[in-house]
Specification:
This protein has 355 residues and is an alpha/beta fold. 39% of the residues lie in helices and 19% in strands.
Length: 355
């Protein structure tokens, strides 16, 4: 990557700034809106509009917005369409050069937009990008959902610079370089609007969880790049819709990950990696069972049954049938399961190296 200009130079030299729509999907998140909307409103980027999409909340979210933020645009979905369809439905109604899919449980910093747009304008092949995601509860620590850029191992298990499985590193500036990755966090996902629609948006079958990973993979299959720009920082609470202990979350994560692999992996990879994944997922289920967490064991089994049903009923048709490019950015050729549990490696740099 060429030397990057300071963000102030970018702003000064661009009188016609690209338009940015910050779109916050909300479901019963009035407390998060109350806590975090002020930081979004304080954003310093000049060509920004803020839109809250309400996914049929049953709390007082909409009333709160009407009373306290009457100038913020609102889109009301009549039913809870989940993360994927909720955004797809809303973004059909939003015109902008860039979309920012921002979780309601995210605190942003005043100048968080400028570095992202500068990087994506300077390098047009970047289709999607994320800021550095730190924990709201411990602002010196990377947060699970994306950290400093999402990666994936050879069997499709996602991890990130600064987060391997459940281990989140302290942020010491070790991943402060802008870097390509395989997926950008759905907690604060910047994407070029035209490409969002060209790629077909998020896969609505996923409902929630890992749809941003699938989306970024499809962008890469069409030759585009995905990046993390750590000059931009946000703080994420995490678990706002479904906590880590949720059996539904376990089910969606396993099912959606398998569907994503089937859709996007080359055939020669699928024929041996999916059977191996079955073995590893059985082992993961057994671990839950022996820990007295039978519900998670059942959730993993259900995920596999519904994955097989999906193969039968919803055979994937590529959105980019004429351009299939298997990019290596953000891909780790080994197994993080092996490195984490057998080699006892916890840090991203120990597993992948200096990236």
């Amino acid at each position: 990557m060429n030397e990057r200009l300071p963000c102030t130079d970018f702003v000064n030299k661009n009188s016609q700034l690209p338009s940015v729509a910050v779109v916050i999907l909300n479901w019963n998140g009035k407390s998060y809106l109350e806590k975090f909307l002020p930081s979004v409103v304080a954003s310093t980027y000049k060509n920004t509009r803020i839109i809250v999409v309400d996914n049929a909340s049953t709390d007082t979210s909409v009333l709160f917005l009407k009373e306290h933020y009457p100038k913020i645009e609102r889109i009301i979905n009549p039913v809870n369409e989940g993360f994927a369809k909720g955004y797809n439905s809303a973004l059909k109604k939003v015109e902008a050069d860039y979309y920012v899919l921002l979780n309601s449980d995210v605190e942003v910093t005043a100048g968080w937009i400028e570095p992202m747009i500068k990087l994506m304008e300077q390098y047009p092949n970047i289709a999607a990008c994320q800021p550095k995601v730190l924990s709201f509860g411990n602002k010196q620590q990377f947060e699970y959902a994306g950290a400093a850029g999402g990666w994936m191992d050879c069997l499709g298990y996602p991890f990130a610079r600064g987060r391997v499985l459940d281990y989140c590193e302290e942020d010491l500036g070790q991943y402060d370089n802008a870097s390509p990755c395989s997926w950008a966090s759905g907690a604060a996902l910047f994407v070029k609007a035209k490409l969002y629609h060209q790629a077909g948006g998020l896969d609505e079958y996923f409902f929630a969880h890992q749809e941003e990973i699938d989306f970024c993979w499809r962008l890469q299959l069409n030759g585009y790049d995905v990046y993390c720009e750590p000059l931009s920082i946000v703080y994420h609470v995490g678990g706002g819709s479904l906590p880590k202990t949720s059996k539904t979350k376990t089910y969606l994560n396993f099912r959606n990950n398998l569907i994503m692999l089937y859709k996007n992996m080359a055939f020669k990879e699928k024929i041996w990696k999916l059977p191996l994944r079955l073995f590893l997922d059985i082992a993961a289920g057994a671990k839950h069972l022996f820990a007295g967490e039978a519900g998670h064991f059942v959730a993993i089994g259900k995920a596999w049954l519904h994955f097989i049903r999906w193969i039968i009923l919803h055979q994937h048709r590529s959105l980019f049938p004429n351009k299939i490019i298997q990019k290596k950015d953000g891909r780790f050729p080994g197994s993080i399961i092996w490195d984490y549990y057998v080699k006892k490696k916890r840090r991203f740099s120990e597993i992948v190296g200096d990236k």
